[in-house]
Amino acid sequence: MRYYCCGTLLILDQNETGLAIFRSFDWNDGLFDVTWSENNEHVLVTCGGDGSLQLWDTAKATGPLQVYKEHAQEVYSVDWSQTRGEQLVVSGSWDQTVKVWDPTVGKSLCTFRGHESVIYSTIWSPHMPGCFASASGDQTLRIWDMKATGVRIVIPAHQAEVLSCDWCKYNENLLVTGAVDCSLRGWDLRNVRQPVFELLGHTYAIRRVKFSPFHASVLASCSYDFTVRKSSCIPEDCSLQHSQSKPSISLMVFFHLLKYSKLYDSGTFQSLTLFLKQWSIIQSLLVV
């Protein structure tokens, strides 16, 4: 039996029998986030506790291909632009800066400053080229534009650290945030004076929130309360369902892009299936 600790990147392959480890890479510090290239199925970028980003090719057994080291502290978030013409990566760090990178260039293209605490989450808009959002320990959600010299919008999103944010794939003005105050809040960029919805139910800080790529009103969240929860974020009818408690903390939750019924929990690598607002655990990670 093999055990994996901080500093390991796992490439998982889903087949008829479940999830299997296709390849693993080791790094000399903890790895906090990962994002796939939008134009090369084998290429991805990770970020780590040593302030660096690493470029990997999963078709090669060794790596990384390149290391980008500019942040002064841990890099906690990394995201590859979904606009195929851009090929840009955005990173957020505990040094309170956001950097934008072209993976073909050995240095960052630009640095954005303004947050007053550590940055936990950065994500590109799937609609507007050059536009991205960031969430921070300074309790704000911020919207940035590469064409602008500074931040476009500052939203006092919570009265606690904001750990995660995501953009709705079906509405260019709608984002969601998750925070230490255990709440999820939706924000319409056309009017940010108050949230368009708020979801309660988690009992500890929310680590990650993701909109469904298939349904505009569906999102999933994972928390330090050991649960993964499915939410309906329609402002008129907000509701929240949850899975059973797990013996490990879920640090990430992500939807299967090919099978709309699949949702994965990184705490246990269990596959969760959605059945009319209910959850069913159907399989576990193969341990080798």
TrEMBL record:
It comes from the Eukaryota. SUPFAM superfamilies: WD40 repeat-like. Belongs to the WD repeat peroxin-7 family. Gene3D superfamilies: YVTN repeat-like/Quinoprotein amine dehydrogenase. WD repeats lie at residues 68-111, 112-147, 155-191. InterPro entries: PEX7, WD40/YVTN_repeat-like_dom_sf, WD40_PAC1, WD40_repeat_CS, WD40_repeat_dom_sf, WD40_rpt. One of its GO terms (biological process) is protein import into peroxisome matrix. One of its GO terms (molecular function) is peroxisome matrix targeting signal-2 binding. It holds the Pfam family WD40. It comes from Heterocephalus glaber. GO terms for cellular component: cytosol; peroxisomal matrix. This is Peroxin-7. Keywords: Cytoplasm, Peroxisome, Protein transport, Repeat, Transport, WD repeat.
